[in-house]
Amino acid sequence: MTPLLAVEGLIKHFDSRRGVVIQRSVGTVRAVDDVSFHLSAGETLGIVGESGCGKSTTGRLVLRLIEATAGTIRFEGRDVRTLSRGALRALRRDMQIIFQDPYASLNPRLSVGDMLAEPLRLHGLASGADLRTRAEELLTTVGLSAWHALRYPHEFSGGQRQRLAVARALATRPKLIVCDEPVSALDVSIQAQVINLLKDLQSRLGLAYIFIAHDLAVVRHISDRVAVMYLGKIVETASTEQLFTAPRHPYTRALLAAAPIADPTGPARRLPLEGDIPSPLNPPPGCRFHTRCPHAQAQCRSEAPPLREIAPGHRAACHFAEAIAAVEAAAETVPPPPYMRRLTDYRRAVAALAGR
Ligand SMILES: Nc1ncnc2c1ncn2[C@@H]1O[C@H](COP(=O)(O)OP(=O)(O)OP(=O)(O)O)[C@@H](O)[C@H]1O
Ligand SMILES: [Mg+2]
Prior knowledge:
single chain, alpha/beta, 8-stranded mixed beta sheet, 4-stranded antiparallel beta sheet, 12 helices, 12 strands, 35% helix, globular, binds magnesium ion
């Protein structure tokens, strides 16, 4: 069966320039560097990772809002990167995007009714009196009222505005919506309403989502599968259940350890990692995570680990994924000897178990 969306080897490099009048290139930002994933109809793929790891860029590439440097993007088998303008416009009916800031993404000069009618008219989906009926239907679909069509975006609350953004995205009856931090700017209580709306629409309309977020609790709630990104690469991907109960990549483990999953309103803790995220202008050689990884070995500094299957449907890009899990499993049944509490000894034990 053809997946709804299949992304292979996606790369986006930005030329980074400095200077106001005379600009000079200071290097290449490897925003997305060899990313592959797929998505079935009606499915939600969550994408998580620290700021700047390439989540939004990935979402924009999929919709071809920006052009990729390399790789393939197939939507229902069609190669998105080589579509003509006309074919791309038709495809935009099937793929929509919702952004973090619903105010910035809504045209303040258009009444809500006109804003919703615009894509319908553009794609020839309705005309005349139908436009108004369809716009009102869209408003009720997202839990607003038909009379809201006469209002302007600034007359709505943050949560209501995000509902408007959802209504606009739904206007063309898309099959896929890229949700880029759709609730990050909202109050926690409103977040739940918008998330539940998205879930409800998904089951009613069979939508697929790429759901980009910082908040792991939200991602866990809405996603079927999750991809974790670090410095432009996917480092781990698994079903939501697998990822949250048995994370295998040291970076995912650090993210989960820092996230206030049980109490999403609590303050996020600092990642239990040393050092800052390296610059995507000059990513570390070998495994990009090795500079912050508590388990890093010599091999990690020279050899980039491939994203490989370590259990059915569970892939991780770590040379020592199994070894780390084995050491931890052993440590659970047998109390670790005192020397194991020291990081260097722990590293040695991990390396020995991996036979390297
Ligand atoms: N137009 C651009 N020109 C140059 N660099 C860019 C451009 N857009 C993004 N980048 C860089 O690409 C990298 C990835 O950016 P992206 O916006 O995809 O990150 P993100 O994961 O969405 O982060 P956040 O969580 O902060 O939204 C960053 O280093 C960013 O500075
Ligand atoms: Mg972003």
